[in-house]
Amino acid sequence: MDLRIKIENYLPCNCEEEKDKEIMIKYINTFDDVLTRNNEIGHFTSSCWIVNKDKTKVLMIYHNIYDSWSWTGGHADGDDDLLYVSLKEAKEETGIKNVTPLSEEIFSLEVLGVDGHMKKGKYVASHMHLNVTYLLCADENEMTHIKADENSGVKWFDLDEAVEASNEPYMKKIYGKLNKKLKDLK
């Protein structure tokens, strides 16, 4: 699995990412079906931190299920090219057409707990998202639009405002980590 190699080659930025990397590799080695939602214990997802050309702003969506401003992303749904998944989700969830990776390398790893919730009239039990994050770039002047079945807002935030806009305490920590890594690139 190409995804396993990418994760094995990823250099974690902190002890949290080191542990998450270890769990992801163990999960790949333990389960056959880690790329689809058929694995109801946990499965791979891909998210993206979409920044403007100056790397001073981030594009976020108001996520309906989490009732919070959030990064974009989605389920692998059988595809082990998680960069492709992140680009697809960025376009679908924000309406932007011109989005490019700042690097094809993984930007961040996270193992995220997902609370049970209703989606499209069906209950989805609590599970884990084995999340691979990519750093993408888009023009902040490009027209955006919401994806009504998933979000109710699309907005550019200054980096620090993006962290504060989230209603999810754990995600504030993740977004802060992404901003720190972004600033370290400059």
What does this structure look like?
Pfam families: NUDIX. Residues 41-181 form the Nudix hydrolase domain. InterPro entries: NUDIX_hydrolase-like_dom_sf, NUDIX_hydrolase_dom. The chain has 186 residues and is of the alpha+beta class. The protein has a single domain, classed as Nucleoside Triphosphate Pyrophosphohydrolase (Alpha-Beta Complex), CATH 3.90.79. It has five helices and ten strands. It has helices at residues 2-9, 15-30, 82-94, 159-165, 169-185; strands spanning 42-51, 57-63, 68-70, 72-75, 99-101, 108-114, 117-119, 122-124, 127-138, 151-158. The longest helix has 17 residues, at 169-185.
Residues in helix, %: 25-40%
Name the structural class: alpha+beta
CATH topology: the name is Nucleoside Triphosphate Pyrophosphohydrolase
The CATH class name reads: Alpha Beta
The residue ranges in which pLDDT falls below 50 over 5 or more consecutive positions are: none
Integer-rounded radius of gyration? 15 Å
What is this structure, in a nutshell?
The protein is an alpha+beta fold and 186 residues long. The chain has 5 helices and 10 strands; from the N terminus they run ααββββαββββββαα. It has one domain: Nucleoside Triphosphate Pyrophosphohydrolase (Alpha-Beta Complex), CATH 3.90.79.
